[in-house]
Amino acid sequence: MPRLLLRVYTWCCCSTGFFIMLLASLSADQIQEMTLNPAQVREMLSNSQPLVLPGSVHHPPPIATSESPDFVPPDMNSWDIITHPPEPPDPPLPSQLSHDIPSNVCPDCSKVLRSARGVAQHRRLCPSNASVVSSRVEIHMADIPTPVPLVNLVNLTPEPQPLVSQHDSDSESSLKSKIYDAFEVVVHWRKNLFDMPKGAIGKSVVKEMANLIDRWTNNSSERGFCLKSLMVLPNLLLQRSSNSKNAKHQNKNNRENLIRRFQLWQDGKIDDLMLEGRAIQNRLSSGFKSSSAENKPRLFRNMMSEGNLKGALRLLSEQKAGILKMDDATLSLLKEKHPECEPAHEEFMLEGPIPVVQNIIFDEIDADLVRSMALKTKGAAGPSNLDADQWRRILCSKDFSVEGLDLCRSIANMTKSLCTTKVSDLETLEALVACSLIPLDKDPGVRPIGIGEVLRRIMGKVVTKILQKDLVNSVDGVQMCVGQQGGAEAAVHAMVDLFDDESSHGLIQVDATNAFNSLNRKVLLNNVFQNCPEIAIYT
């Protein structure tokens, strides 16, 4: 405390000494010039002049009164706005004036001041100076733009459009032809995609995917090729150009390639992207790596590290490596497995009134349900070459929190539309229902395996989750794998009990040749409408 008091005392002494030195440096005439006597004050007030201190710099601008000869009354009908003019330019120096007027006298009002600098400062506010008179700026109401109501500000925000519809160089028909041609090519490409990078560029691509789905749901003019664009987009933008062991360099390279390719996609340069994609695919090692004895340990380790326990166990139990080479013989075998369907026999078609389904039951389909079903989806990639892991990262990762949620919401809206509205233009769904056909070696013969699009599997899980009770009631215990906990195991134990029963003489196992591919789809859909109308439209 004493130290604080000492500091305050020292500061007061220093301030007082500085003020005394300042007064001592000024002469008596200078001090008298800085003051005004009562006579000067009365003269200024009587002449309605502003109070001007000698040597002052900043003063408020004079206001024009009714007594001033330059005063103009405002016209209230014109809604004029009177504003103060900008600060006038400095008056000319005394050396530029007439030599008859002393340098310390104002040439406008003949006021005697101390110096030429004082004259220059005085003339800025001198009421006798014509340049100081207030000017009027007229702003009519017709020149003022009409304010926009706050309720319409939402409509001013441009609706997000898919980038494929913003091209100026190509017409819609030309762009549609390019997308169709690209789809026919990329579905045969080998999987060579890197994961969607986080950051602004990854979010932009995810947003573009959501826009394409929204355009199909909203039945826009680009609906015919929106879903095919969705399948083509990852094949063209996410192609891995190298397999560098340096992860940091690889990620940087992938990000730079994605930024450049996404700009080409925005510009509608599909041909340039196709040329680059073909060049990358041609340099990939061709052929399927068989699970030989030398490769099995490595494949088993990779599957276990990825959490693919089912595939790892299947790898250990298989006797011969799996995929046949695609040649003319394999192609002919696949065609035999997909013959023309059997004719529709009326005795197999159920009849009766079709119950009316209320669409309100599908309101449970939302973004959260799509995200939860994406977490449970596993498997290989379909035509888009995005496998379940990559879709799960896009939809559920925190790296795409807002954009991923918007994509989930778009998928939910599309699923609702498929469940409640019949699609008249089925060609628009071709890309969604397409499958990648894999010829497995059955030894002898071939087993065709169709790998559908992961997006379609997620949507199917969402629908079956909502209609689980309806599906169980429709099959009435005939299908043990529909909504039954351990249904397949129960069927096996039931067969064992029947075989061990003394009254049983034997069991007959019936296996129809190519039964599923030989079914008539018309009969199938008709019976679905009769047994489970809730899922009929989606089917």
Description:
Helix 7 packs antiparallel against helix 8 (223-237) and helix 14 (367-376) crosses helix 18 (454-466). The protein is mainly alpha-helical and 539 residues long. It has helices at 2-25, 28-33, 38-46, 116-123, 153-156, 172-186, 200-217, 223-237, 247-266, 270-282, 296-305, 309-317, 328-337, 367-376, 388-396, 401-420, 430-433, 454-466, 468-475, 487-500, 515-518, 521-531; strands spanning 435-441, 446-452. Helices cover 47% and strands 3% of the residues. The longest helix is centred in the first third of the chain and has 24 residues, at 2-25. It has a two-stranded antiparallel sheet. It is elongated and about 140 Å long. A hairpin with a 4-residue loop joins strand 1 and strand 2 (446-452). Among the domains are: 1-29; 36-132, no CATH class.
